[in-house]
Amino acid sequence: MKVHRRLMLKGMLALGAIAAWPRLLLAARPDSAFSANDADKAIADLFGQIPLDSDQVKMKIPDIAENGAVVPVTVSTDLDNVESISIVVVNNPTPLAAVFLLTPRSIPSVAVRIKMGQTSQVRALVSAGGNLYSTSKDVKVTIGGCGG
Amino acid sequence: MGKPIKIRAKVKGDISEVKALMPHDMESGLRRDAETNERVPAHYITEVVAEHNGEIVMTAYWGPAVSRNPYVSFSFTGGVVGDTIKIHWEDNQGDSSTTEAALK
């Protein structure tokens, strides 16, 4: 099962053009992105787009996670037309942790608890209006949660 | 069959907030059994679908990095007290679970 990648207008991407982009379509679980062992590869596979850093993407996660097996994370945004929220743990063996597909009725905020094998950058990605935005934070893990 | 999902769904004004706890081992496939030293096979929820009165309001795709006994919360507009929230998950071994709850 492959992610439908419809965001092919690379030139427009470079200009940061907004307009009426086709939305990211995920008819099924993006298995290849979940099995990617590199964060950038997973993101490219999932979105076919490079994320733009944005302070409109907000991530609440501890600076120090005492137990890497249970790290609470909340991602929210002020952006309109949010299509999805994704969480990537860069140093995990398979970095893509979760993808949430929202609807026009959704409040763009999700909370979940994730495992972190070791200290890592955690990235939150929001696709909205056909563009991809992200924020990231370094989280120090004192006891790894990879096995748990 | 998987265990039932614990759902708490509350309406505040126009916003309905859903909190769900899904009892599940969420084995990553990387952990070794303490006694046999053999790898415990991966067993984790891959997909979660939430519906409000039959309309999908959230779909989640997960990898093995979601914690054991996953907790998730999300919100949507347009629900009223008494409406039905249905949450369904499927895992990588073909197990599934579906639970319904009323919006309060």
How would you describe this structure in keywords?
heterodimer; A: 148 residues; mainly beta; Immunoglobulin-like; six-stranded mixed beta sheet; three-stranded antiparallel beta sheet; B: 104 residues; 0% helix; elongated
Shape of chain B: elongated
Number of strands of chain A: 9
Which radius of gyration of chain A do the C-alpha atoms yield? 15 Å
Q: Which fold name is given in CATH as the topology of chain A?
A: Immunoglobulin-like
Q: What is the domain total for the residues of chain A?
A: 1
Instruction: Supply the CATH class of chain A.
Output: Mainly Beta
Number of E strands of chain B: 7
Q: Using a beta-carbon cutoff below 8 angstroms, give the protein chain pair with the largest interface and the number of residues from each chain.
A: A-B, 34 and 32 residues
Oligomer: heterodimer
Q: Outline the low-pLDDT stretches of chain A.
A: 6-23
Distance between the termini of chain A: 28 Å
| Structural class determined from secondary elements of chain A | mainly beta
Rg measurement of chain B, Å: 15 Å
CATH homologous superfamily title of chain A? SoxY domain
Give the helix tally of chain B. Answer: 0
* Fraction in helix of chain A: 10-25%
* Binned strand content of chain B: over 45%
N-to-C series of helices and strands of chain A? HHHEEEEEEEEE
Helix content of chain B: under 10%
Low-pLDDT segments of chain B: none
Content-based structural category of chain B: mainly beta
